[in-house]
Amino acid sequence: xxxxxxxxxxxxxxxxxxxxxxxxxxxxxxxxxxxxxxxxxxxxxxxxxxxxxxxxxxxxxxxxxxxxxxxxxxxxxxxxxxxxxxxxxxxxxxxxxxxxxxxxxxxxxxxxxxxxxxxxxxxxxxxxxxxxxxxxxxxxxxxxxxxxxxxxxxxxxxxxxxxxxxxxxxxxxxxxxxxxxxxxxxxxxxxxxxxxxxxxxxxxxxxxxxxxxxxxxxxxxxxxxxxxxxxxxxxxxxxxxxxxxxxxxxxxxxxxxxxxxxxxxxxxxxxxxxxxxxxxxxxxxxxxxxxxxxxxxxxxxxx
Length: 303
What we know:
GO terms for molecular function: ATP binding; metal ion binding; transferase activity; tRNA binding. This protein is α/β, with parallel strands linked by helices. The protein has a single domain (41-301), classed as HUPs (Rossmann fold, 3-Layer(aba) Sandwich), CATH 3.40.50. The chain is 49% helix and 11% strand. It has helices spanning 30-48, 65-78, 101-111, 120-124, 128-135, 140-158, 170-183, 186-190, 211-222, 237-251, 255-270, 292-301, and strands spanning 19-21, 26-28, 56-60, 85-92, 114-119, 163-165, 202-203, 278-279, 286-287. The strands form three sheets. It has a five-stranded parallel beta sheet with strand order 5-4-3-6-7, sandwiched between helices. The longest helix is centred in the N-terminal third of the chain and has 19 residues, at 30-48. The chain is globular and about 65 Å long.
């Protein structure tokens, strides 16, 4: 998950290094590693103007390393500000033996924030297991992803959140750009991220931080994580892209940053393509010409 460095000195002091950043060439001790990661996240927040006075930030907390690290970072950085509120929001997809909501609740309590939990069953009346049982697992990630985004937005909006913080890291961002390229999805690659009525704006403070560094940051704060892989993830394109990209980036360390920059600059170069959304009369969520979430839920129910 990360390159641990033994018997090497920190590039910034004489203490023992715990990580080597292949892309920067730096060896960093615990203190300088934490400072470096937090500086990257703060810079991303500042440059993107992610947080403003009066915001209620709902952190999408799965209980895994990425979301746990994000919740800790946000409470550490902004927890004492009286003009901001931070809450934790967990979505239970209804996958037997996969989502450990107790772990998410424990992390939220350790960070001193209020924890909320919603489920697919509660919001859309079905679960991922039920969908797979009825339709098979070939498109399980598609169904689960669309419905999960629907549930996160619905719950965050009902809680009065003005920002929905996601634990996506640099690897996730680079993978998404490459996946869109492999699919030939030009429209998605040039789509603007302008605010859409009814959608709680998403922020990704760790978008410039490599996954292995987020993992190490989480481990240093919370100890080990026993994350179980989703039993349906074997059909996901992202898994193949992750392997391909990691192999290439090992030889070309700046690749993930290059892909992230490409994804950010394309809309400006090609001209903004704003999303044309309306409010779904059935579920009340923003949608295009047809509500994909409602359509998938109806398919899952056999309607």
